[in-house]
Write a structure and sequence with these properties.
Order of helices and strands of chain A: HHEEHEEEHEEEEEEHEHEH
Strand order of the largest sheet of chain A: 4-3-5-6-7-8-9-10
Number of strands of chain A: 13
Oligomer: homodimer
Largest sheet of chain A: 8 strands, mixed
Strand content of chain A: 15-25%
CATH class of the largest domain in chain A: Alpha Beta
Structural class of chain A: alpha+beta
Shape of chain A: globular
Helix content of chain A: 25-40%
Radius of gyration of chain A: 18 Å
CATH topology of the largest domain in chain A: Fructose-1,6-Bisphosphatase, Chain A, domain 1
Largest interface: A-B, 30 and 30 residues
Number of domains of chain A: 2
Number of helices of chain A: 7
Chain lengths: 247, 247
């Protein structure tokens, strides 16, 4: 494991450790609205602080783009790029400390920490990604060009067959408009096995493992912080990620 | 725990033990079409055999109504009511040994064993129900009039608030017709948190635990073997189960 992946791994471990210490009641306390537009819950803040603590301890001068705080510059968490080292000055850490906050607060054991490392502000510049299942501690990760892994074992997307009725398709329908829902109905009618677990990043990892055959989100609301790490994991697992125009 | 609940508990434990010994490849082998209309997979057969083994060992003369085999009469598994004891001659065991077969075969850790005991062929005559999460071994159960439990701790449905946007609603959309989907769209648009995990019985137990606020299945396909045990667990947890006419 290289030093960047070590850092991503340590971020996930620290987030899991810190959020495991707060009660469900405390986890669900509402704070202000986060940079991503959703209400930040206490568990989001605790998770994000745990992640930033690790970034600072590594002393690298990355820009952190986070679900809750938005852009945080520099290794000290200050908006001050002078703290950057030369070799990491242009790196970006894309963080969703808690993906699946509602599940975490309700006690549904399906939520994750998602963190990626990129060299510019484009998805294609992501070189490292890690997603940890915060219930089980299972970790999914990928380094560009080196394949995708779960707990040290190589993972690959499923070999799709022609038996469409047997497909298991993850779809994010939460808060979807009726218009978009109608556009989805032919897909929904195609398979007997629709799933929605409530953490985009972790559902994309199930796809990378071959447990889902497709994962679809056409709500028009998905954020780069939700998908940055899982995007690389899917690509390195042999899968494909496209936008709604199939680009 | 009374002797009937002991039997249901033992059925779940034996099912979990036997299915844990077969590989995923073996689990997914297709056998004939079961009584419920779906293709029976090897894991369904192994689970059902494990359940019937326990019923026979208890020597009671129940009719078993099972997802795969349909009606099985008598304590020996023969269609012979002369084997019944007088005090149990009119009992029915309603069994879905593996609810969530697709998940089990794909490796998605959300499938269950569902078993109920009834004194007649009506849902209202169910006196005992048990559902085991076959991944974790968590067991949900209820005896009529004595409340609902998970691993020995009392469970209750959630106190619903007026914050509809905060509701977490489980909906079974698999293979739903476009017409029914349209009728669901206002509900789908109401909440930001839709879930579908892939085991009706276990999702109904999440409702009984207060982790979901509602669980909806309007495909018109649900079978009594899918819901018998969870029906009693929800009712005893303070919840309500209604059909599509709200009866």
């Amino acid at each position: 494991m290289d030093s960047i992946m070590n850092m991503l791994h340590d971020i996930c471990i620290n987030v899991r450790s810190k959020v495991s210490r707060i009660s469900r009641e405390e986890a669900g306390i509402s704070l202000a609205r986060g940079a991503g537009g959703d209400i930040t819950k206490k568990i989001d803040k605790v998770g994000e602080d745990a992640a930033l603590e690790v970034v600072r301890s590594y002393g690298i001068g990355c820009t952190v783009l986070s679900e809750e705080a938005g852009l945080v510059y520099g290794s000290k968490g200050k908006r001050d790029e002078s703290t950057s080292n030369d070799d990491t000055a242009h790196c970006i850490i894309v963080l969703d400390a808690i993906d699946g906050t509602t599940n975490a607060v309700r006690g549904i054991p399906f939520y994750s920490c998602s963190v990626a490392y990129a060299t510019s502000d484009r998805l294609s510049s992501i070189t490292h990604g890690a997603v940890m299942d915060l219930t089980s501690g299972d970790i999914y990760y990928a380094v560009r060009g080196d394949g995708a892994y779960m707990n040290g074992s190589r993972i690959r997307v499923a070999n799709t067959s022609n038996d469409k009725a047997g497909y298991v398709i993850g779809i994010n329908l939460s808060g979807i408009s009726i218009d978009r829902l109608k556009r989805m109905s032919s897909i929904l009618a195609m398979t007997n096995h629709i799933r929605q677990f409530g953490s985009n990043a972790l559902e994309m990892c199930l796809l990378a493992r071959g447990l889902l055959d497709a994962y679809i989100d056409v709500r028009g609301k998905i954020r780069v912080t939700d998908i940055a790490a899982a995007y690389l994991i899917i690509v390195e697992a042999g899968g494909m990620v496209v936008d709604e125009h199939l680009n």
